[in-house]
Amino acid sequence: MNVLKTNFTVTEFVFLGLSSQPKMQLILFIMFLFFYLLTVVGNIIIITIIQIETCLQTPMYFFLTNLSFLDICYTSTNVPQMLSNLVGKKKTIPFSSCATQMYFSLSFGMTECVLLGTMAYDRYVAICHPLHYTVIMDQSTCVQLAAISWSSSFLSSMVINVLTLSLPYCGPNVLDHFFCEVPSVMRLACTDTSFPEMVVLIFSILIVFIPFLLIAVSYARILLSVLRMRSASGRHKALSTCASHLTVVALFYGTGIFMYMRPQSKSSRAGGKIVAVVYTLITPMLNPLIYSLRNQDVKGALRRALAKQRT
Question: Residue 266's Cα: distance from chain center in Å?
Fold first, then answer.
């Protein structure tokens, strides 16, 4: 490492990617391209259905629209680079492009964390305070909560990226990943990264762990309220509206905490890449399927839309 760390200033990074075997790269390309197209098409369908169906013009689906749009942006920031690396001979990215990708990837990821927390709060108000739901979660409040989710995440990502990019990168430029992500880029710095890692951990606690606590508290209160319900149908309906959200939370938060809330020295690089595939591609692909298959309102709206197309 001392030999590699010369005075040369890195101008581009070389990706190791997910595999070096041509046959495996082709298989991964076809599979990930299918997943990416399914993600984009599925989330566009969700957004379209919500916009054209008046019965879905509620706070819950307003936030779901934000989540679907976010998933399209998130995957489009990372997956095209992954696909290019799998079939292209040149697996490099300029330093400036890497910085841009790293910023938007982290921004969208953080936004999803905060947005999932906001959606949990929405479910808490709807189930625990149904009579005041329309007053508490009015249009102005929903817009403000969504704006806070986006703005706080983009500002936090800016701090982390400025700190990461201010480190000296003077030697090794081989990135053991398939896209530019803070932990993998930070490993190539020619200096001690203890302080930047601590900053990343602090922001992870603020943007990842605090919304996670909000989700946990919200659903604890929801569970208590559901257990007090006398009607079995009422309990089933209340839980069914939360099941989709909880599934998405488990997938996204489980992998995000694994990646960002551990010391980098203890993280497995191969395991980190597999986890990154889950939260950058698999989870955004599953979100529209989860919300459509487990949500009676969305399934009903989709059936009506298909019936209109046939007529």
Answer: 23
Phi, psi of 93 (to 5 degrees): -145, 135
**Cα-based distances in Å from 152 to 61, 138, 200:** 21, 21, 15
Across-strand partners of 12?
Answer: 94
List the chain pLDDT tens, one digit each, 311 residues.
Answer: 343 444 347 788 888 878 778 888 899 999 999 999 999 998 998 898 888 888 888 898 899 899 999 999 999 998 998 898 888 788 889 988 999 999 999 999 899 889 988 988 998 898 888 889 999 999 999 999 999 999 999 999 999 999 888 888 887 788 888 888 888 888 888 888 888 888 888 887 888 788 888 888 888 888 888 777 777 766 666 666 677 677 777 777 777 666 655 555 444 555 667 777 888 888 888 887 777 656 667 777 777 766 776 66
Contact 107, 154 (CB under 8 A): yes
User: Which residues lie below 8 Å from residue 106, measured CB to CB, with a gap of 6+?
Assistant: 157, 160, 161, 181, 182
Residues 6+ apart with CB under 8 A from 120: 211, 214, 215, 218, 219, 245, 249
DSSP symbols for 19-76: ---HHHHHHHHHHHHHHHHHHHHHHHHHHHHHHH-GGG-SHHHHHHHHHHHHHHHHHH
Backbone angles phi, psi at 179, to 5 degrees: -155, 170
What is the pTM assigned to this prediction? 0.84
Distances in Å between the Cα of 173 and the Cα atoms of 15, 87, 89, 96, 177 are 9, 20, 17, 14, 12
For residue 123 the two structure tokens come to 């479910």
Residue 290: both structure tokens together: 């989860």
Residue written as tokens 């257990």? 227
